[in-house]
Amino acid sequence: MPLMNRNIENFIESLLFASGRPLRLSEIRTILENEGIRVDLAEVKVGLNNLEERYADTSLELSEVATGFRLQIKKDFSHLLSSLWTENNRLSKSLMETISIIAYKQPVTRGEIEEIRGVQVSTNIIRNLLERDWIKISGYRETPGRPALFITTKTFLNDLNIKKISDLPPLPEKEDLSQDEITDTTEINLEAS
Amino acid sequence: MSTSQHKQGELGIVNGVPLPEMPEDLFIPPQALEICLETFTGPMDLLLYLIKKQNINILDLEVSKITDQYIDYINLMESLNFELAAEYLVMAATLAEIKSRMLLPKAEEDDEEIDPRLDLIRRLQEYQVFKKVSEELANMDRVNRDFYLASVNMPKVEKKTNVIDFNVARLKSSMVEVLSRPKLDKSHQIEFEELSTQDRIQLILSILSKKNLIGFYKTLQKSEGKVGVVVSFLASLELAKDGCVDLIQNKNEEIYIKSKVLNAVNE
After folding, report:
1. Tell me, what's the ipTM?
2. Does B150 contact A73 at a Cβ distance shorter than 8 Å?
3. Where in chain B is the domain with CATH 1.10.10.580?
C-alpha cells in the first residue's frame, strides 16, 4: 500500500514539525492510533526512514536524540541562520567546566565541583544551568548540611545533539595530557590584543 | 604583542629582530593582564597557565619559580585594583607553604617523606582533565549555535478575552451593588445525627416482631443517656401515630409498647 505509507510519512512529518520537542517512536504510534491509524513501531520507523530519504536533497534532516526524533536544519545552513538568532549563546569557561564536572562525575555536590575547580561555583552558573534545564537536583547527600546532588538532564543531551551520556567524549587520561596538548585560549586572547 | 607562536622552538620576531630565545622572565605581559584576568576561571586555571608558560610538565612542578610568578601576578592584580576571589589568596598561601617546605633541608635518613607538592600536583592533574574535557564539550555541536531545529510556529491558542467597558464609576457602582445585596448566604453546619429516630423505629419494630409487648426501657441503652430516651420516645410516638403500636402506661407509670400489627397478623 504505497499510498498508505506515504500518508503515515506525512502524518509523522507534521507531528515532528509541530510538536516543538523530540518525539519517541511510541509517542508517534499512540498519536496515530488515536486518529484511528493502526501502525506498529516498525511501520513508524519505516515512515521515519522514508522521511529521511525524502529530505536528502533539502535543507532538513532527521535526528535522533535522547528523547526521540526531531527535525533539524542541516549544519551546512547554520551560518545563514545565526544572523537571525539574536540570543547570545556564548557560555563562559567557568560554566563549561562546571557542566563538564557534573556530566562526568554525576551525581555530584557543589562542594565537589569547587574542590576540583579550586574556586567557588557561582550561584549564577548553577541558576543558568538549571534554567537551561541542563542539570537538575537528583537528591541530597546524607551528610551534614544535606548538600544537593546534581545530575545532567535529557535536555542537555538533546542540546548537544547526542542520545546518551556515553556519547560524550571520553575523559582524557591524566598521563595523556602532555604539555603541548593543553589548548589555551588565554594565549590566543593575549596575542589578539 | 611581544611574541607570536613559539611552539617547538619557533620564536617570533620582535620589532623586526628575531628572538633568539625566550626571555627568561616572560610570563604575562602586564599590559595584557586586564584582558586575561577575566579569562582565568580560578586559581587552578591561572596556575596551569603559569606552568604551561614555563613549558614544563606538571609533574616537574618548580614550586619556587611558580610561586614567585603567581604572587607577582596577585600583587599586580591588587595594584590594578582588581578584586581577586579569596581562593586566589588561598592558593598563594598553599604555594608559599609548599615552597617553604621544599626549602627545608631533608633529613637524610627520612626517605619516606612525602613530596609536599604531591597534593597540589594531583589537584592540578584532576583540574586539567576537566579543563580539557570542558573545552571539548564547548566545541561540540550545540543547539542554536552550531545547528538549528526545524519546526513550525504553531499558533498560540488564546482564550478570547472580552474587553469590558469599564471605568471607576462602574467599579464603584458594582461595589455598592455587591455590598447592598441581602445576605442570603448564611452558613450553617449540618451535624450528623448520633442517634436517628428512623433507626430506632426499625429497632423497636424488630423487637416487636419477636415479642408482642416490651417495656419502653428495653428499647434504649443506658449509655445513650437522655438523647437515647428522647429518641426512643419520639420513635414510639411516631409508631403510635402511624397506628403500629399502642402505648400503655401502668400504675407504676412504666411505659409499655404493644404491637398492633403483629396482633393483627396473629389473629
Report:
1. 0.82
2. yes
3. 197-266
